[in-house]
Amino acid sequence: MDSKIKAGVVGATGYAGAELVRLLAEHPAVSVDKLSSVSFSGQEISKIYPSFRSGLASLLEPNHMSMLDACDVLFGALPHGLSQPIAADCAAKGKVFIDLGADFRLTEEEVYTKWYDGHFDDPDLHAEAVYGLCEINRADIRKARLIANPGCYPTSAILGLYPALAGNLIETTDLIIDAKSGVTGAGRGLSQTTHFPESSQSFAGYKIGLHRHTPEIEQALTQISGQPVVITFVPHLLPVNRGILSTIYCRRRSSLSEVRAHYEAVYADEPFVTVLREGEFADIKNVRQTNCCHISLHEDDHTDKLIICSAIDNMVKGAAGQAIQNMNLIFGLEETTGLPRIAPAF
């Protein structure tokens, strides 16, 4: 492109929004033109996040309306229920909208209503949304103007299971996804469970059988396998800032060596997915602050189970980095542009 992409972030002071701002500010093909925050409108973002002082002094807008004409792409880093009007305004102006919230991830309105207690304002607009998991939907993303950026837990789980389900290497029943996330996954707003004295030196499950990412994961896995997939999904809160590790248990149809060969073939050309060598274990520290997913494969001969471990950084590959990966595809850039692939050594 001859000029830089003009990007705006709605909800720039939440954790996902701030991570977007950080990555976009270092992106060689992007100009961060507009930022908004209801809570901190009129303030400089560097006053909320002093780490931005060396590169950003942007004043925070009160909402997205003043951003539409100035930007080529808007990112929505908002809680569910707030993105549909923004998407409609972007569509009317011919702008790209990449939603990091949940408003466009589910294709069936009744499922969205059940899990999020909301409705589709414009069903036709929802039908245009593309689920932004680049490794699976790359061709559709390139043509899209509205992206439903996947959730963090779903990203880890779906990438972990995609080759196995697509290759018919596992049973589609009795799938268990045992996932652990860093505290940033709960957002910037304080609650008792994320309060430091509660989360430090603690490790516990939460929303067991009730987590809103369940239907998103099932929807994607059903599309991949071509038949209904129902999962047992158990999330846990880790006493760390970043990272998701999903340990996935499934009944295998093939040997571990066949499974490994298939995974390596499927992900051979994927810049952000690494299938680890035999004997290695996926670890969140090795993907921290990167847009990468590490997958390790294991077997339990005693129960004839395949065990898949999938690790991502929930703030990057699980949110902001994946959103930028989608933007790169839409605007014809190299998919890896501006996205980190090497984690800090310690």
Topology:
Blueprint: E1 5-10, H1 15-25, E2 30-36, H2 45-48, E3 60-61, E4 73-76, H3 84-93, E5 96-99, H4 109-116, H5 123-128, E6 130-131, H6 134-142, E7 146-148, H7 152-166, E8 175-181, H8 196-199, E9 204-205, H9 213-225, E10 231-237, E11 244-251, H10 256-266, E12 273-275, E13 293-300, E14 305-312, H11 316-330
Parallel strand pairs: 1-2, 1-4, 2-3, 4-5, 5-7, 6-7, 8-10, 12-13
Antiparallel strand pairs: 8-11, 9-10, 11-14, 13-14
Helix pairs in contact: 1-11, 6-11, 7-9
Structure description:
The protein is α/β, with parallel strands linked by helices and 346 residues long. The protein starts with a strand and ends in a 16-residue tail after the last helix. The relative contact order is 0.14. It folds into two domains: 5-128, NAD(P)-binding Rossmann-like Domain (Rossmann fold, 3-Layer(aba) Sandwich), CATH 3.40.50; 153-316, Dihydrodipicolinate Reductase, domain 2 (2-Layer Sandwich), CATH 3.30.360.10. The strands form two sheets. Strands 3-2-1-4-5-7-6 form a seven-stranded parallel sheet, with helices on both faces. Strands 9-10-8-11-14-13-12 form a seven-stranded mixed sheet. The protein is 31% helix and 21% strand.
Q: How do you describe this structure in short?
A:
The chain is α/β, with parallel strands linked by helices. The protein has eleven helices and 14 strands. It has two domains: 5-128, NAD(P)-binding Rossmann-like Domain (Rossmann fold), CATH 3.40.50; 153-316, Dihydrodipicolinate Reductase, domain 2 (2-Layer Sandwich), CATH 3.30.360.
